Amino acid sequence: MNHILYATDGSSASREAIPMISDFLNRWTEAKLTVLYVSTAYHDPLYAGSIPGVPTLAEPEYNDEIVAAIKKEIVEEAFFKYGDRIRFEQHVGYPATVICEIAKERSADLIVMGSHGRGALDRLLIGSVSHGVLNRSHVPVLVVR
Predict the structure, then answer these.
(1) Sign of torsion, CA 84 11 111 95?
(2) Are 113 and 130 in contact (CB under 8 A)?
(3) What CATH number is associated with residue 135?
């Protein structure tokens, strides 16, 4: 194991994966970890509440808060002892697609992500990032609940 990609949205569900990732980093002492946050494009018509071509003012500030929380609580606190083995990246786009693209570009051996545990109806109506990654990824995916 050389490279783990941890896709997170900063939620408590995604934080459930942290102990398992720490265990992997302890076992594979040369492995690198990329912590990835993907935000949806603000003007994307598929983004709930957006009007095509008209970004709202609240979304950038909210996105900045999420990024700051992920950097502080996950990168700096949860994985601090792994030092330069940890890298944070933020991208904008459709999360499932971007996660798979970054995993391929970074030659990740494993994608780890949390699941909100939504049921079939929610997946049918709004989609599921973890479900999308599982269907698109060319590398193993570990979904932690």
Answers:
(1) negative
(2) yes
(3) 3.40.50.620
Count of structural domains, the chain? 1
Do the beta carbons of residue 54 and residue 67 sit within 8 Å? no
Give residue-wise pLDDT tens across range 23-75. 999 999 999 999 999 987 655 555 555 555 544 444 677 788 999 999 999 99
Strands across the sheet containing 86-92: 86-92, 32-39, 3-7, 110-114, 141-144
CB 41 within 8 A of CB 47: yes
Pair of tokens at residue 96: 């499932």
pTM summary value: 0.83
Give the structural domain span for 66: 3-144
**117 vs 115: CA distance, rounded Å:** 5
Which amino acid belongs to residue 70?
Answer: I
Report the SS3 class of residue 92.
strand
